[in-house]
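Quick note —
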Amino acid sequence: MTVRPVPDAPAPPRPDRPARRESRLRALDGLRLIAALMVAAYHYGGRGGEITRAWGSSPKEQFPTLHGYFAYGCLGVQVFFVISGFVICMSGWGRPPKSFFASRAARLLPAYWAAVLIVSAVFALPMVAYEALSPSDTLVNLTMLQQPLGVDRVLGVCWTLWAEVRFYALFALCVVLPGASRRRVILFCAGWTLAAALAQAARQPLLDVVLMPEYAPFFIGGVGLYLVHRDRRDVYGWGIVAVSFLIGQHYAVRSLWNASDPNAFAHRSSLGIVLVVAVGFVAVAAIALGWLNWADWRWLTVAGALTYPFYLVHEHLGWVVIHALHISLGLPSAETFMLTVASMLLLAWLLNRYVEKPLTPRLRAALARVR
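Predicted structure written out below.
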């Protein structure tokens, strides 16, 4: 009897490349703090507005040379968005939706609530020259939805959090909910890039709100860099990063280039903006490729922990501290600048120690238990 050979069974689909065991990327923590300090330099010495009242004159007079460099500090926000794309893809990979939601909410809300209440309380003091919002508007601010609801902001920087929340929602719906995989992440990045470009062309406010054409390239670039972190030979990952940088620098130049404005506080050049954006992408890429693994100092973890609360409180409370040190006590500009940054870092440490550390794990556990 002839035995017929059994045909080979079809090969199972190749599983997605397993995620490497993630260790703490301390250099990323350090880059977070650098981005936050860039934004603080912009708010304290790189723009006009309310900070002029705090100094008693324009920061151009306080920092005749440095104010032009401080004006580029606003690009720290774009660096934050690239970091956020990297971190959210890393933290959302292999995590169920409920765990992802609990992690993000617990990370954002405790320090945010505390910052809203502290700034509102300080601005309500009679000796402070800045007006607090109404109790009703302050309560709305606790939801983090004040911008779409048209309510004044307690924290000037919270507009970036609204962008972050929309990114989290898009990533959760398109990647985390169906299950993260390399193919799905690539499709998400490609689809969002194309949809954001179409939204820009359509000029529809609803599409702009959902797809964020101006900020999408930075989040997407960070996601692409996480693919590179998983596999540095990933051509698709590098392609996502390259396209995101090319589009992102365009939006940054379009919104921040002001050399033709004779009334601008400081004139940013298009080349300077492109260089700062490029340095941000390159810095995250160096971390993704492991080139900065030697920067494994424990104090960088502390720096990363302080970044978020520092970012929340530094602007408005910085006005109060600068006025007290420079106007009331007569300290020179440089000393006032450094002491203000130091005081905001100290407040950030207190918020991390007495608000985030006790409340974040409890809130995460409570949300994770909800059915």
